[in-house]
Amino acid sequence: MFLGEFEQLVLLACVHLGEQAYGVSIVDEIERRTGRQPAHAAVYVTLRRLEQKGCLVSWKGQPTAERGGKARRHVKLTKAGTSALRESRQAFEQMWRGLDASARRLR
What pLDDT is attached to residue 101? Predict the structure, then answer.
């Protein structure tokens, strides 16, 4: 399964966050680790797409007073999501292989 760059960032944020992965925490994690400020809407659309692809499952947590009684939608990687993320990493590693010696071309 092919994953785009942003899909990979969202999945990796989910891995780092574990059980605390939900929309806002994912936005914050991506920003903290990459310096990029993803739009909340982009993350939510990507989460929906990844769930449709079978890479994630989601569930609603308990309603909280700080959210006006609304529940957060938490997400977790599936086995398919973990496999897709590994395949994407391997593809990039294969593309980078051999370029370290000639990195001056990338400067």
Answer: 62
Rounded-to-integer distance, Cα 97 and Cα 39, Å: 33
What does the DSSP assignment read for 31-86?
HHHHS----HHHHHHHHHHHHHTTSEEEEEEEE-GGGTTPEEEEEEE-HHHHHHHH
Segment 74-107, tens digit of pLDDT: 999 999 999 999 999 999 899 888 776 666 666 5
pLDDT tens string 40-61:
999 999 999 999 999 999 998 7
- How far is residue 69's CA from residue 87's CA, in Å, rounded to a whole number? 40
Q: What single DSSP character describes residue 3?
A: -
Q: How many CA atoms lie within 13 A of 54 on its CB side?
A: 6
Burial per residue of 20-40, b for 16 or more beta-carbon CB atoms within 10 angstroms, e otherwise: ebbbebbbebbeeeeeeebee
DSSP letter, residue 94:
H
